[in-house]
């Protein structure tokens, strides 16, 4: 029998975040709003239009000096 001595992983914090989701029903592409490069992005997977929505995802800070959104 195998007994792991690893400590249980800490719970990763998640929050409701603004994202751009692909409007194409066959595509599941999305981009975080604070990581997009334009005001109205185009889906990088299928080139369809994207719509602003919210999604419960892991918290990540955008520390890029080029980021204009806050």
Give a verbal description of the structure:
By secondary structure, this protein is mainly β. Strands 2-1-3 form a three-stranded antiparallel beta sheet, with no helix packed on it. The protein has no helices and three strands.
Keywords for this entry:
70 residues, 3 strands, 30% strand
Rg from alpha-carbon coordinates: 17 Å
Distance between the termini: 51 Å
The profile of the biggest β sheet is:
3 strands, antiparallel
Query: pLDDT below 50 for ≥5 consecutive residues: which ranges?
Result: none
Mean pLDDT: 86
Helix content: under 10%
In percent terms, what proportion of residues is strand? Answer: 25-35%
Number of helices: 0
Structural class: mainly beta
Query: What string, H for helix and E for strand, traces the elements in order?
Result: EEE
Characterize the overall form. elongated
The total strand number stands at 3
**How is the largest sheet built, in terms of strand order?**
2-1-3
Task: Give the topology, please.
Blueprint: E1 14-22, E2 30-32, E3 50-58
Antiparallel strand pairs: 1-2, 1-3
């Amino acid at each position: 029998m195998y007994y792991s001595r690893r400590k249980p992983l800490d719970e990763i914090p998640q929050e409701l975040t603004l994202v751009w989701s692909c409007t194409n029903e066959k595509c599941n592409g999305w981009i975080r709003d604070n990581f997009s490069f334009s005001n109205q992005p185009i889906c990088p997977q299928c080139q369809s239009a994207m719509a602003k929505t919210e999604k419960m995802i892991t918290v990540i800070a955008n520390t890029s000096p080029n980021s204009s959104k806050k």
